[in-house]
Amino acid sequence: MIEARKVTKKFDGTAVIKDVSAQFDKGITNLIIGQSGSGKTVLMKCLVGLHEVDNGSVYFDEENFTKMGWKKRKSLRQKVGMLFQGGALFDSMNVEQNVMFPLDLYWDSSYEEKLERVNFCLMKVDLEGVNNKMPGELSGGMVKRVAIARAIALNPQYLFCDEPNSGLDPINSKRIDKLIYDLTVEFNMTTIINTHDMNSVMEIGYNVAFIYEGMLWWTGTKDEILETQNDELNDFIYTNEAIKRLKNIK
To answer: Rg (Cα) of the chain, in Å, rounded?
Structure first.
């Protein structure tokens, strides 16, 4: 579990995140949604430690991450996997080297042991046998799956996904959603996904936090979101024609 307690983050004296308290549970997909500029990306960066909070605290399973020293943070970060927008693979490394990169940083193991883990992770994302391919040889969906394999290489307890469906067609987007959900359940991870994709919300939004103008404006499930009377949330979600049709069917 990850918890934000009254988190505030300012830039140049202006609060971008304002007194946000939210809980993200283990074993389910937790989604942060909101308009561009709402603060959802800043909130995620505060949770993962890429931004230091100005007020409040972030807890990882009751441990106060905000007050941790450098050594303890480094130890905790070995339990964190990160899926960056666009995949962020190293262009000069092949697939095997990309997935092995975090293992080289943190594992004091033989190459054979690391390779076994790499192949296991590639199997989990249905990419066996692509070890020697370069990122430029991969489709967009394959790049995201390699990035997921790299994110789970250290068997993390916590997984952060920044716009995992960005740039993907609907079929690959759905595949990535299912993959992230299945891995979350199988490994009982605390997974937090930053997205504006309402299809993802309806597919895997088991815990949804809506950020509006830097504030936590609504929380609920993918089922509850269709019945909300929250005007700002409705303005956000019903710009999507597919969601409009789904509500009419219900």
So the answer is: 18
In the chain, the amino acid numbered 134 is: M
Residues 24 and 157: their CA atoms lie apart, in Å, by: 13
Report the candidate in 189, 138, 199 with the shortest Cα–Cα distance to residue 161: 189
Per-residue pLDDT reduced to its tens digit, 202-238:
999 999 999 999 999 999 998 898 888 888 998 888 7
Please choose, from the candidates 40, 18, 14, 83, the residue with its C-alpha nearest in 3D space to the C-alpha of residue 236: 40
How many Cβ atoms are within 10 Å of 132's Cβ, its own excluded?
10
Q: Are strands 207-212 and 29-33 parallel, antiparallel or unpaired?
A: parallel
Q: What is the DSSP code (8-state) at residue 214?
A: T
2-79+158-249 CATH, one of 3.30.1300.10, 3.40.50.300, 3.90.550.10, 3.80.30.20: 3.40.50.300
| Stated pTM of the model | 0.90
Tokens at 179, concatenated: 């993959």
